[in-house]
Every structure is written in C-alpha cells, then in structure tokens.
Specification:
By secondary structure, the chain is of the alpha/beta class. It folds into 2 domains: 105-120 and 197-477, TIM Barrel; 133-192, no CATH class. It has 22 helices and 11 strands. The chain has helices at 2-19, 26-40, 50-72, 83-91, 94-101, 118-123, 149-152, 161-167, 171-180, 189-192, 196-214, 217-233, 258-275, 294-310, 334-337, 359-369, 385-394, 402-407, 419-424, 445-455, 462-474, 480-503, and strands at residues 106-111, 132-135, 141-144, 159-160, 238-243, 282-289, 315-321, 345-350, 374-377, 397-400, 429-431. The strands form 2 sheets. It has an 8-stranded parallel β-sheet with strand order 1-5-6-7-8-9-10-11. Helix 15 links the parallel strand 7 and strand 8. It is globular.
C-alpha cells in the first residue's frame, strides 16, 4: 500500500509540475521524485541503527571510490566487465573484502555438482586413488572410478589420472589442463564462447565430465563436505541445494538407491551442523532434466514422491533443469507436474532467456499458475508487466544469479541486467550463485559484488545489502521455528560484523 502511495505521489508531482510551474519549485519537484524513487527501491524502508549508519558511510567510501576509478578508466571498471576479466580486480577490491566478511544469510539456488571450487577438485578429488579418465567419440573426457564403457560412451581406453600426471612433463601444467575440464574460465570469453549455443554446450558437457566421479561414495562425501565448508567460510549460514540425486557406487562396484544418496546428504548435513552450530544446514530440491520424455518424467516424479515421503523436511521441492530454450516448456509437462505430492513445493526455473514471446519466457506464466514457491533466474520477467506485478503482489522471490546470467550469455555488462529493475521496483529477489565452481568462483560473495556494484544504483549501500541478506532467510523453506532461530543467529552475526568494521578489522 505504501509503495503504491509513493508511486502516486511521484506521478502527481510530475503531472503538477508540468501543468503548473508555480506548484513546486524545480528543486522541490526534483528532490521529491528522487526521494520517492529511493523509498520505492529495495531497502528503502530498511532501518539502519547509528552503528550501521557509520558502517554504511565507510562502505560507501570504498564503493564510490571504486566506481569513480572505473568511470575514469573503463578497463578498471569491474562492475561493467565480464567476470572472467573482472575477477583479478574484484579479488583486490575493498568492497569485495567487506562482502566476504559480511553475513550473507542463505543461498537458495545452487546446483550441487557445480558448487565446489574447481581448484579443490584439482587439488583433492583428482588426487584420490583410482580416478580414471576416458574419452568419448566426440572427444569429451569422462572422469570416473569405475570402468563402464557402455554407460560412459567411451571410445578410448581408461587411464589412471595418477599415471597421466606422473608421466606428464610438468605436473602443474597437467593440473591446469585438468582444471579446464570443469571450469569455463578463459581470458577471452568473447572469442572462445562467441554464441550462447557454444557456451551452453561446453557448460552442460562439464556436468557429464565430472558427474560419474562425484557419485563414487568416498568422492561424494568429500565433495559435499567441501561444499558445506566453502559456504560456511564465505559466511553463508544455510543453503537449498538442487540435485539430480544420482545413484551412488562404491569401490566394489555396488550401486545404491537414490534414497541412499539423500541419506548420505542428510548424514553429512547433520555432522556438519553439529560441528558448526551457527550453520543451519541444507535442504534438498530434486532437479530433473527438462528434456525428459513424459514417461521418464513420471518415473522421476514417482521417485521424488518416495524421497519426499521419507524425509519431508529435508527433501522439500522439485525443479526442472537444463538449457531452458532447448528444453520442453512447462506447459507440455503439466500432467506430470500435477502428480507431485501436495506437501512438495515447486522451485521452477523460468525465463532464463533473452527471447520475448517464446515458449521459454512464457514458462514464467506457467510457473506462476503452478504456484511456484520461487522463480529460478526470472531474467525475462521484466518484459511481462502483468507477471511482474503478480510476482511482487504474491511475494514470490526471484532467484537472481548475476554471474551465471553473464557467463551463459544473457548479458555482458551486468549494469544492464533486469535485476536492476527488480531492485528499483522492490520486486522480491534473493542473490544466488547457481554454479560457481564452473566459472572460477566459490561461495556467494562474487555475486553479491555484482548485485551491489552493478545492479544497485551508485548511491545504494548497506540498506540494500541488509535487505537482500534478510530476504534470503525470509524466502527460504525454513519452518517458522527454524526461521526464528535463523534470524536470531543472523542478528548476532550481523551485529558482530558491524562491530568488526568499526574496529577496522574488515578493511
């Protein structure tokens, strides 16, 4: 109601100024509009106490300093650069140091098999005994701990990674080349990935390259423990993980049911939370390939029903994944999606596209009609004002992943990302990282950097940051009791963070 009133005030101010120049002075009209816009924006009504206001002043010195430097020298303007070119600048940034130390609440859109830094995959997983590599007919490598040529579609012999490394001329060069198998990073993304098709083909290949290795039980445990460590070390307190829930296997060749996969994640989560009482753990969103035929989709829905029934407060929802432009539209899958149990929630990818009036962006309409709990990406939402208004009025959070949208070719300069419009209109959003391990990132801080430096206006600081952090808990699937505890922990860690900034131990 307050937001609508402010909009009316802005409209009246502009209308009256045109109709009668004597109604308000030019300066009064100008300031009224600027103030009303600020009030309409995300964070416009977030309260900062005196200590937070001081921290905001400190933060803004760094932010405006970096933006001014970028204005003078476009090559130093990280906020406008592709992440692959900006990362060295971001790593040296005072704003980034602040964001790394800042409690970030929750990450609500994160795919498990691309959640861990590629450096850890090289330094740890690739040195695990028994890791094999083979090559398919198309030249794609496959990493695994078992020899199953038919499943892997391998044409070459299996070779031990340890033998390849030992026989290489330079171990460091071998490891660098190995990392390229599961990392899209390139200093020249515009040359290596000139089209969206090329970058998506390479991106989806990487899931196939590493997928089987990650379902080896010891690797699965080590990888997901590292996922939790990296989130915790980046001051993330909770995560909702999307996983395809593949079946696991062990050194003897035994395979296990999908329920075992979920039980393993549940057990890892319980152990991690015990060791880190200020970490609230994870919940699982089962994510199924959107290109499945209807029979396959119905099978996975039935399997999901079983998993959700076994652990309803851990396996909380369902999603469809894969390149949305090439996958089946939601409208074609309605009959299967309607078979989901009523206690399960949908967290549907929708509108991850530059198209307008195509089946991909119309997925947003079907996601809303299916009563999705949140929208994954929602990049095209700005082109659909009725849907945008519905998202805002129904308080359905949009999971915005700035770096993902940039790397996967939706936008080059993130200042042009529709998330800026969502912030200006106070559309509920949460900042997410999607697949950070696949593009030389980890945790959530890099995406927060672009959120505050590129999506937010130049003069926006701690109010927007605090609102986005609190949004991440507000729009999570935590129970009311869990949310109460989450906000208590968040208030405490936030207060300690504010004190540390004022003590000078952050910058």
């Amino acid at each position: 109601m307050m937001k609508r009133l402010l909009f009316c005030i802005v409209f009246l101010v502009l209308h009256l100024q045109i109709q009668a120049q004597t109604t308000l002075s030019y300066e009064q009209a100008r300031q009224a509009v600027l103030l009303a816009e600020e009030e309409l924006m995300t964070g416009g009504h977030t309260y900062l106490n005196s200590q937070e206001a001081k921290v905001d002043d400190i933060f803004m010195e760094y932010k405006l300093g970096e933006l001014s430097q970028g204005f003078r020298n476009a090559e130093q303007n990280a906020a406008a650069l592709h992440f692959f070119k900006a990362k060295p600048l971001i790593d040296r940034s005072g704003v980034f140091r602040f964001l790394q130390k800042m409690p970030k609440g929750a990450v609500l859109h994160l795919h498990n098999t691309a959640s861990v830094s590629s450096k850890w995959v090289v330094d740890d997983l690739s040195y695990m005994p028994g890791l094999l590599r083979c090559t398919t007919a198309t030249g794609r490598s496959v990493l695994t701990f078992r020899r199953t040529p038919k499943e892997h579609k391998c044409q070459s012999d299996y070779v031990r990674v340890s033998d390849e490394r030992r026989n290489s001329l330079d171990r460091r060069i071998y490891d660098q080349n190995f990392e390229r198998l599961i990392n899209l990073y390139t200093p020249v993304p515009e040359l290596e990935f000139p089209t969206i098709t090329q970058v998506w083909d390479r991106f989806q290949d990487m899931f196939d390259i590493i997928g089987d290795a990650l379902t080896y039980l010891p690797a699965f445990r080590a990888y997901h423990w590292q996922m939790l460590e990296e989130l915790y070390n980046d001051n993330v307190m909770y995560a909702e993980i999307r996983t395809s829930c593949k079946t696991l296997y062990d050194a003897s060749g035994r395979t296990f049911s999908r329920e075992r996969t979920i039980r393993e994640l549940y057990s890892l989560n319980e152990k991690f939370v015990k060791l880190h009482p200020d970490f609230l753990g994870i919940k699982i969103i089962v994510a199924v390939y959107r290109g499945y035929e209807m029979d396959q989709l119905r099978e996975t829905v039935e399997e999901f029903r079983h998993l959700h029934h076994a652990l309803p407060h851990f396996v909380v929802g369902f999603d469809l994944v894969g390149q949305e432009d090439k996958g089946k539209p939601l409208y074609a899958l309605l009959s299967a999606l309607r078979d989901l149990p009523p206690t399960a929630r949908l967290f549907l990818h929708g509108g991850e596209t530059n198209w307008f009036g195509a089946s991909t962006d119309i997925n947003l309409l079907d996601a809303l009609l299916l009563n999705t709990t949140r929208i994954g990406h929602g990049y095209a939402l700005a082109k659909h004002p009725i849907l945008l208004n519905a998202v805002k009025s129904r308080q359905i959070a949009v999971e915005v992943s700035p770096i993902s949208n940039q790397v996967l070719h939706l936008v080059w300069d993130l200042r042009n990302h529709p998330g800026a419009q969502y912030l200006s209109l106070d559309v509920p959003i949460v900042i997410c990282s999607d697949d950070p391990g696949f593009w030389n990132a980890k945790g959530l801080s890099y995406d927060f950097y672009y959120a505050i430096m590129s999506l937010a206006p130049n003069n926006a600081g701690l109010r927007i940051l605090k609102t986005l952090v609190w949004n991440s808990v507000k729009f999570s699937t935590l129970t009311e009791e869990e949310k109460t505890r989450a906000f208590q922990i968040l208030e405490l860690t936030w207060s300690r963070f504010i004190d540390k900034v004022l003590e000078g131990s952050v910058f």
